[in-house]
Amino acid sequence: MKKVFIVGGTSGFGLSLAKKFNLDHEVTVCGRKKYPIFNGVACDMLNISENIFQEHNPDIVINNAFDKKDYIKSYQGSLNVLKSALSFFKLKGSGTIINVNSICGISPDPKDPDYAAAKYALRGYSDSIAAEAFQKNIKIINLYPRAMATGMNIGRPDFNELIDPDEVAEFVVMMTKSKSFYISSIQFDRINK
Question: CA 170 → CA 11, 40, 117, distances in Å?
Answer without folding.
Answer: 16, 21, 28
